[in-house]
Amino acid sequence: GGCYNGLIVYFDLRKPNAPTGKCKPLSVSVIDKSHHDPVGDVFWVQSKTGHQCASVSTDGQLLWWDTRNLQAPIDSIPLPKTGAGDGAAKDGGDDKKLRLGGSSLEYNTEAGPTKYLVGTEQGIPLSINLRQRKANNGITVLESQGSNNNGQHHGAVRTIQRNPMHTKFFLTVGDWTAKIWSEDIKSPIVTTRYHEAYATSGCWSLTRPGVFYITRMDGAVDIWDLYQSQGEVTYSHKVSDVALSAVSVQGNTQSGGKLVAVGDTNGTVSLLEVCNSLSKLQPDEKASLGSVFDREARREKNLEIRDREEKRAKAIEESRLKKEKEILELADDDEEDLLLKAEVEFFSMLKEDEKA
């Protein structure tokens, strides 16, 4: 688990503390070696020992730990600074940029044991591949810079999660919207309309690749079914009078999906049961949703290519105009030099005639 003061704590539920029967932390990280801000998320990661986990925090660090010894992290990666994805220094250079802070984390071995997704408090998702660590620590900033720059959330990314059946695509929840991304494109391929209240968390259905759940600040949970409609909420249910804070679906890709647990800010957990149409895989749904995601990914990639070409053409045109301006200035300078030379020669000839 991760704590508000940045500590990482390790529990072993097989060893409750006598005589109360409550489970206390088996070990706790050292505060000097831990995160300096609240821990946003913690995930178990694949390792030979089975004791490693990764944590992310708004202090701008992704840390790896061995739960057998929490005295210090075994590895770390600093998250990039704002604007790092555009390849150009702004406002006086890199020193004035702020480091991105991690607010959520995703790790799924089916997508690859070296791949991580990080949601930031600045609303920008990050894709991390440790196999490419020599280049920018393996970090790709998913922030588009062109005319279709609609990717960044207007608040912290509360949830980031891969689709359970199409792991190349993932969901982010932040501000009033949810967005679906492809890990190799810097802009979202699907964006929901703005919800009536602030979105606090979300998750995919584990049995249906086109269904995901969004919890809201007004106590309602929205269910989206992309297989039926991509523009409207399929079903919205009022769960509590206080803000909801978390949602999770029971089961795996093979079974389950009917029970949905929803938590609110008062600490209450509500258990919902959805109908079969929202939990049972529909005929040809997996292939159809894969085709939809691929089609939207190609469209966004074509838009990125168009933006790059427009930028290149604009840069070429600016360079051409700059060169023409320089040539005209040189021509003006040459003309002034010729006039000055002629004037000097004229007055020198007049002086010679006067002497004669």
Key structural traits:
alpha+beta, 4-stranded antiparallel beta sheet, single chain, 21% helix, 356 residues
Structure description:
By secondary structure, this protein is of the alpha+beta class. It is built from 2 helices and 21 strands. The protein has helices spanning 276-279, 285-355, and strands spanning 9-10, 27-28, 39-44, 52-57, 61-66, 75-78, 102-106, 115-120, 125-129, 139-141, 157-162, 169-174, 177-182, 190-191, 199-204, 211-216, 220-225, 235-238, 244-251, 256-264, 269-273. The protein is elongated, with a radius of gyration of 29 Å. It starts with 8 loop residues before the first strand and ends with a helix.
Structural class: alpha+beta
Please give the alpha-carbon distance between the first and last residues.
105 Å
Overall 3D form: elongated
Instruction: Let me know the average pLDDT.
Output: 86
Strand order of the largest sheet: 3-4-5-6
Number of helices: 2
Specify the oligomeric state: single chain
Low-confidence stretches: 84-92
The Rg value, from CA coordinates, equals 29 Å
| Portion in helices | 10-25%
Helix-strand pattern: EEEEEEEEEEEEEEEEEEEEEHH
- Could you give a short account of the major beta sheet? 4 strands, antiparallel
Query: In percent, how much strand structure appears in the residues?
Result: 25-35%
Q: Let me know the number of strands.
A: 21
Topology, element by element:
Elements: E1 9-10, E2 27-28, E3 39-44, E4 52-57, E5 61-66, E6 75-78, E7 102-106, E8 115-120, E9 125-129, E10 139-141, E11 157-162, E12 169-174, E13 177-182, E14 190-191, E15 199-204, E16 211-216, E17 220-225, E18 235-238, E19 244-251, E20 256-264, E21 269-273, H1 276-279, H2 285-355
Antiparallel strand pairs: 1-2, 3-4, 4-5, 5-6, 7-8, 8-9, 9-10, 11-12, 12-13, 13-14, 15-16, 16-17, 17-18, 19-20, 20-21
